[in-house]
Structures are given as structure tokens and as C-alpha cells.
Automatic annotation (TrEMBL):
InterPro entries with a match to the protein in the record: DUF5682, LolB
Chain intervals for the UniProt region annotation (Disordered): 122-151, 753-784
Annotated protein name in UniProt: Uncharacterized protein
Signal peptide: none
Organism encoding this protein: Streptomyces wadayamensis
Basic and acidic residues: compositionally biased ranges: 132-151
PANTHER family, per database record: OUTER MEMBRANE LOLAB LIPOPROTEIN INSERTION APPARATUS, PTHR30634:SF14
Tree of life domain: Bacteria
Length: 811
């Protein structure tokens, strides 16, 4: 059927208002046009199932940005979003109709078909990738309909019109002809409605020409969507007459103006697949509206567009004032003169570039030059906080939701734990009831794959009473909550059922131990017995010592955490002790035949097991023989340290751990180091031993500073390494010593410089000062000078210093 060149209906209606989604200029024009024509009904592009939810847009607790969420009831992960911002033309039309009691309906293809068609496309392999959320969001976008055939040539109508007008940037063209068009903004003249209607007629004619030239433009699914829109439009005209206004994507206007029969349109819709769906409103964010968030109909600068829509006048001046305020909050010196000069520069740039008003490009250039002094660092902050922004919408409690969502909202209110879109870090003190409950909620949500928070490194202390979390609530988490609803109606019951299922399906021992740790942190006492049974069964069947060594630390942390929280972890401690014994038996034989990567991995495992054994012996004394466990582990370390077939890296680490434990004295360590660095040992092996002994663990550098014998052994070995082998050992040595703090490296360098090859003697041509120790540093203790600070230390440290001074020392 031939497309008409126009596309706008007659002056008496129906009126077809073609818009750009999330365009503030379109939104202002829609409001002005509706005020001018006063339609008896308003039709909006969107899923018809949302008609029953439309009234919630007028609720006092509804604050955009929000989105309609449709999901398959039997597969909540299959979902679609229709987002609305305050500056979205569809939202403006919806609120206009509700505020005036005018009937409002959504007329796009029903979500029951949209989700089913998506499933069919994916099953046929017609899927271009991306996450479920990203694919779903495209369903509400006229420029990117769900799952178009990739081989089809798709036309970007804005790009074609911009090119015809001589623009190389569709965004800039749209700003110039729509967003910056006068007469339709806040405080507009009396003819704002006529100007808006004229602009819609012009845009409809332009789209009509494009449809006549390109047909569906490669948007093959649009033919079905547009057929359904025409069916709904005809039904509305039958009920309300011609006094009907339609707000839809501009691309669809010519298709809705076509004169087709109801029979022909229904034939296009016959046989479409269906799935049972549920709809609700969910909060959305400005960041999720941005293209960077993966939204198909996204815009580059939602914060800027929101400002353009809400600013009553002088948008550039008001925007630059916001920017100045942000920079001042960040400690930058920005005066009113800076703002005035930036406004002038933005206007001058717009004039030079032939634009009617300064747009975001000119404003950003002015900000960079004047307010940021040419630096992109503060400019990145402005783009993140203002140009995009972290605005999070709100949805009233009356909106439909799965029971799990209701329980989560109840917990958030009771814990005063409001979701926010912006990233933020919180510290929780688990000794406080409210903080402990927040921690429990976050861990349970993590188990349900609702990642509202992710654990972060604690900013103060490493005790088990403190947790740090990085929080960020993203809209797609609403889908995750709906998915998790299959496990239960409350967060606690759903997390318990999910933990039991994960324990049954886990294939690796480390996964089950991590699950046990999470169950303790989430206080899922009902799930823990099932997890423990799965853990015992898997541990009995797993013979890989590497798997056992990976699983032990998490299991021991679980024992320790339960001990701190007062949880009975006796069975857990017994399993951990049995796992440790199996590691003790299997670890020495596993030290042979390893390459460099294997040796590094085994070294990390030995360190983790060493820490785990210490924690287990300290926290589970009632269930295990702590002293015996430590003694057996030390015997394993001795075995590894003296095992010639083990890599030097592993042997050196074992010796270091024994030294730190106090099991080996300095003489024994010096003897082993002398053997490892003897002439018969290949230089690379000797360097690996040094890395194992001195690298990684804290204090390796200070050990060399204070132990002259070890320093002399290392110095003598370095002097004996042949020139041909030195380049082979140099990377290992650099890796070892580069981990030391700069002060430690400086001290070692000073010792070598003053001591020469004989590290304990003065440098040639110098004499040691009286009282100077052999290592070349300054005079020994001066009792008079030490006594002078005793009184100050007594005030600072209290009686502890006084006791030391009473014993005859300076404290």
C-alpha cells in the first residue's frame, strides 16, 4: 500500500503527534498541542496491558524516572521495560490525560506477544547479543524494535533528515530544529499550541517521505506493531469519535495515517505467539536512560535533557550555575565571573557554529575552557554527576509486585535502608542490631543473585565484627527479584531454598565451602544442615589436594564467623579438621614436578592453609585439638622445606613460615639459606628460594635489615653468580625486592653502601665513630637524651611507661 507523503491527520482529529522518545522538546510540544486541541482520549505507544496501571502515574508517591516492567510469569528473567522520564513525551501525555480525567490507553503490540516473539527470535538464533535487560529495554523503542533481522538494512530516520539538512550529527540537528525551537517552552506565548501543531505536521510529512522512499526501513517487526496500533486507534475512534490524540514514535506516524481495513490489520496479527505475562511499575534511573547503560532507545545526556525540560528560562545560565555549585562542593575555586565568562563563550561558540542557541556541545566546551581550565578531570565529574546523573525514581506501594518484592521493601523500610542509584560505600558494625540485620539482608540477596551490594575491603580494621559494602541499586535488579520469587515469598525463605538447591547442584568442593560461609553470614540456619551434608559428601569423594587446599580457608572462615556470631559450628569445625588432615597428607607429594606457574599457585595455597590452620586452632579449640593440629602442620612444613624435589619457591616459603612461627631459630634458617645458595645450586633455583623466603609475606625486608648473617649470605651469593646467569635471576630478584616499602629498600641500600662486600665493616678509608654499631648506623643509646622524653611518654602512654622506667630503663 502506498504511503502518504504527509502523515498528520486533519485539523479536527484524530491527531497524530510523532515524537522522539525522551526528547524534552517533543515533550513540551506534546503538552502545548494537547492544551490546544483538548482531545477526548489519549493513545500512547506502549503495552496495552498497562492500561490498568496507568492511574498510578498520578499517585503522589510516583516520581519519574520509572518504567513499565513486563515479565513472563513462568520465566521472570524474560522481561521488557518501557522507561519514562519526566521529560518523556509519553509521560507528559499520560499525566496530562490523568490530571484532566481524559481516558488514556496504550496501543503498542501487547507484551504477551513481544516477549513470545523475542523467545522465538532467540530460539531461531536471530539474536545479536547483550544481556536480557538490554534486549528487553529495546522493546519500547521505535528506533530499535525487538529482534529485527540482522541482515536487513535498517534506516535511522533522524540521520537521513540530518544529512539532508547538511548536518553530520543527528543529535545536533534534532537539538537545533526541536529542542532549541522557540515558542514551546515554559512561559511560551499564546501561539505555542499552533507552533507545536505545525511542527508535528512538518515532522509527519518528513517521515512520510522517508517511509515512501524506504518502506519499513529494515524495521520488519514494525509492520506488526503498527497494525496493532491501527486496530486500537479504530477502536478508540469508534468509542470517542475523531477527538483522539496519538503519541507515538515519529517513524510510525505515516503508518498510522494509512487507510487500511480492520480485516487486513487483524490478518497481520493472526497467529502471533503468546506467553502469560505480569506488569508493574519499577523505579528507573537517569544513568539507565543513557546509551552507556545499554538502553536501546537511550540518550547521551539525560541530566541535561531533564534540565532543558524543567528550566523556566535561560537554560544555559542555569546549567552553568549548577556546574559551578558542583565544582565548589568539590573544593575548586569557581567565581561568578567564571560563570559569566563561560556563558559568553558558549554563546559565541553557538554563533560561530551557526546554531540558534548554545547546546550541550558548546556549553561543555565553555566549561572545559573556563571552569575546568582545560582539564578533562573535573569535566568527567560534571558529565557523570550532572550530564548523566544518578536520579532514581520512586514507585508507590500500590503498584503490583511479587510477594518477594513486597518483603524486600518491608525490610528496607524497617532497616532504614533506602535504595540509591549512586554508588556508595557503607561500614557495618555487626555488634549493632540494625547493622547486623542489614548485613544479613545483603548476604541473603547475594545468595539470590540480587547484587544490590558487593563486599568491599574494610576501611578500618580486619576484625569479623566489621563489614564494608559497596551499594548501587540498578533497575534490572527488579527483574532479579522477580526471578528469585520462585524460591519463596520472603527473603529468608527464598534464600534458604536457594542455598539448599545450590548445595545439591554444586560440583566443586570450593563452591560448597563458599556456600557454607555465605549461609553463616546470612544466618540461614535451616539451610546449613543440607549444605553440611553436601560438603561432607563432596569432601569424601574429592582426592585433589589442590581442591582441598582451596576449600579449607573458606570453611575455616565459616567456623570463625560462626564462633563470633555465637552460632553452633561444631560439625563445621570437625569437617574442617578432617579436611586439614587430608591436606597435610597430600601436600608434600604434590610439591614435585611443578613448573613456575604451578609453584606460584602451590605457594599461595600453602600460605592460605597456614593461615587457616592457625584460625582453626584458635577458634575451634572445643571441637579440635588445636595444639596437635599446629604441630602436625609444622611437621608438614619441615617436610616441604627439606624436600629437595620441591621447587625453591615453595621450600623458601616453608622455611619462612617456620621462622615466623618460631619453630626454626636463626641458626637453622641461616644453615638452610646457605645450602640453598651454595655453588652447587643453579642460580635460578637459588633466586626462586630467595623469592619464597623473602618475598610476599610482610617483614621480608626488615628480616634482612636486622639479621646480618642472612644479609651476608645473600651478598656473598650475589657476588658469586656468574655474569652469564645473572640476567636469568635478575627478574626474580627484582620481583622480590620491589615489593618492599621504599624505606626498607633505602635502608638496605645504605647498609650495602656503608658495608661494602663485608656488610658488617666500615667502608674503606673511614673509621667507625665511638659507640657506632657494626652495621654502620649512628651512635648507640644515649641515656640522658632518652630520659628527657620519659615524662612526655608517660603522659601519652600512661602507667605502662612508668613501669618500664621503674625497671631502670628510659621507658
Amino acid at each position: 500500500m502506498r504511503q502518504p507523503k504527509g502523515g498528520q491527520a486533519g485539523a479536527q482529529g484524530p491527531w497524530l503527534f510523532g515524537v522522539r522518545h525522551h526528547g524534552p522538546g517533543s515533550a513540551r510540544s506534546v503538552r502545548a498541542a494537547l492544551d490546544a486541541v483538548q482531545p477526548g482520549a489519549v493513545l500512547i505507544e506502549g503495552p496495552p496491558e498497562a492500561d490498568e496501571l496507568a492511574h498510578l502515574a498520578a499517585d503522589m508517591d510516583m516520581r519519574p524516572p520509572v518504567a513499565l516492567l513486563a515479565h513472563a510469569t513462568d520465566d521472570p528473567g524474560r522481561s521488557a521495560f518501557w522507561p519514562f522520564a519526566e521529560f518523556s513525551p509519553e509521560w507528559v501525555a499520560l499525566r496530562w490525560a490523568l490530571d484532566r480525567g481524559v481516558p488514556v490507553h496504550f496501543i503498542d503490540l501487547p507484551a504477551t506477544h513481544t516477549l513470545a516473539l523475542r523467545a522465538a527470535d532467540e530460539a531461531a538464533g536471530d539474536d545479536t547479543g547483550g544481556t536480557d535487560g538490554e534486549k528487553a529495554e529495546e522493546a519500547g523503542n521505535e528506533e530499535q524494535p525487538p529482534r529485527p533481522h540482522p541482515e536487513a538494512l535498517r534506516v535511522d530516520p533522524l540521520a537521513v533528515l540530518a544529512d539532508a539538512a547538511g548536518y553530520d550529527d543527528p543529535e545536533r540537528w534534532w537539538e537545533d530544529v526541536v529542542e532549541h525551537r522557540g515558542g514551546t517552552g515554559a512561559g511560551a506565548e499564546d501561539d505555542a499550541g499552533e507552533a507545536a501543531l505545525a511542527s508535528f505536521r512538518a515532522l509527519g510529512e518528513a517521515m512520510g517521505a522517508l517511509r515512501e522512499e524506504f518502506g519499513d526501513g529494515g524495521h520488519t517487526r514494525d509492520l506488526v506493531r503498527e497494525a496493532h496500533m491501527r486496530v486500537r486507534l479504530k477502536a478508540a475512534r469508534k468509542e470517542h469519535g475523531d477527538s483522539v490524540a496519538v503519541i507515538c514514535g515519529a517513524w510510525h506516524v505515516p503508518a498510522l495515517a494509512l487507510r487500511t481495513t480492520l480485516t487486513a490489520d487483524r490478518a497481520l496479527l493472526k497467529g502471533l505467539p503468546k506467553v502469560k505475562t505480569g506488569l508493574t511499575w519499577v523505579p528507573w534511573t537517569h544513568r539507565r536512560l543513557a546509551r552507556a547503560g545499554g538502553y536501546g532507545a537511550g540518550i547521551a545526556s539525560p541530566g541535561w535533557y531533564g534540565h532543558l525540560f524543567s528550566a523556566p528560562d535561560r537554560p544555559v545560565e542555569r546549567w552553568l550555575t549548577k556546574v559551578a555549585g558542583l565544582l565548589r562542593e568539590e573544593g575548586r575555586q569557581v567565581s561568578s565571573a567564571h560563570v559569566i565568562e563561560a556563558v559568553r563563550l558558549a554563546g559565541a561558540l553557538a554563533t560561530l557554529r551557526g546554531r540558534p542557541l548554545a547546546g550541550l556541545t558548546e556549553t561543555t566546551d565553555a566549561i572545559r575552557s573556563v571552569l575546568c581550565e582545560g582539564s578533562d578531570v573535573p569535566l568527567a565529574l560534571i558529565e557523570d554527576r550532572l550530564t548523566v546523573g544518578d536520579v532514581l525514581g520512586e514507585v508507590p506501594a500500590a503498584a503490583p509486585a511479587v510477594p518477594l518484592q513486597r518483603d524486600l521493601e518491608r525490610l528496607q523500610r524497617s532497616l532504614r535502608f533506602k535504595p540509591e542509584a549512586a554508588d556508595r560505600e557503607i561500614d557495618l558494625d555487626l555488634r549493632k542490631e540494625n547493622d547486623a540485620a542489614r548485613s544479613r539482608l545483603l548476604h541473603r540477596l547475594s545468595l539470590l543473585r540480587v547484587d544490590w551490594g558487593t563486599p568491599a575491603a574494610a576501611r578500618s580494621g580486619t576484625g569479623t565484627f566489621r563489614e564494608s559494602w559497596r551499594l548501587s541499586w540498578q533497575p534490572e535488579l527488579a527483574v532479579r527479584v522477580a526471578e528469585a520469587g520462585v524460591w519463596g515469598t520472603t527473603v529468608a525463605s527464598a534464600a534458604t531454598a536457594k542455598a539448599r538447591s545450590d548445595a545439591t547442584s554444586a560440583t566443586h568442593l570450593a563452591d560448597i565451602t563458599a556456600l557454607a560461609e555465605l549461609c553463616l553470614r546470612a544466618e540461614l540456619s535451616e539451610a546449613l544442615p543440607d549444605v553440611m551434608r553436601a560438603l561432607a559428601d563432596r569432601a569424601a569423594l574429592d582426592t585433589d589436594v589442590g581442591h582441598l587446599a582451596q576449600a579449607l580457608p573458606a570453611l575455616v572462615r565459616s567456623v570463625r564467623y560462626g564462633d563470633v556470631r555465637g552460632t553452633d559450628t561444631g560439625a563445621l569445625a570437625e569437617v574442617a579438621a578432617g579436611l586439614a588432615e587430608r591436606v597435610f597428607v597430600g601436600l608434600p607429594p604434590a610439591c614435585t614436578g611443578l613448573d613456575a606457574d604451578g609453584a606460584q599457585e602451590l605457594r599461595r595455597q600453602i600460605e592460605a592453609v597456614h593461615t587457616a590452620v592457625g584460625l582453626l586452632a584458635d577458634t575451634a579449640a572445643a571441637q579440635v585439638d588445636g595444639a596437635g593440629l599446629r604441630q602436625r602442620w609444622r611437621a608438614v612444613l619441615r617436610n616441604i622445606a627439606d624436600r629437595e624435589s620441591a621447587p625453591g619457591l615453595v621450600r623458601g616459603r616453608a622455611v619462612r613460615l617456620l621462622l615466623d612461627e618460631g619453630t626454626l631459630d636463626e641458626d637453622a634458617v641461616a644453615r638452610r639459606m646457605g645450602l640453598a645458595l651454595s655453588p652447587g645450586t643453579p642460580p635460578p633455583d637459588a633466586a626462586a628460594w630467595i623469592e619464597g623466603f623473602l618475598g610476599g609475606a610482610a617483614g621480608g625486608g626488615m628480616l634482612l635489615v636486622h639479621d646480618e648473617r642472612l644479609r651476608q649470605l645473600l651478598d656473598a651469593w650475589l657476588a658469586s653468580v656468574p655474569a652469564t646467569a645473572f640476567t636469568d635471576v635478575l627478574p626474580l630478584l627484582r620481583r622480590t625486592f620491589s615489593a618492599y616499602e621504599s624505606g626498607v629498600r633505602r635502608t638496605l641500600g645504605e647498609l650495602v653502601r656503608r658495608g661494602g662486600r663485608a656488610a658488617g665493616s666500615p667502608a674503606p678509608g673511614t673509621e667507625a665513630l665511638p659507640g657506632t654499631p657494626a652495621d654502620g648506623f649512628g651512635p648507640g643509646l644515649d641515656p640522658e637524651r632518652a630520659d628527657a622524653v620519659t615524662e612526655v611518654l608517660r603522659h601519652l602512654l600512661g602507667d605502662l611507661v612508668a613501669v618500664g622506667a621503674g625497671d631502670g630503663g628510659p621507658g
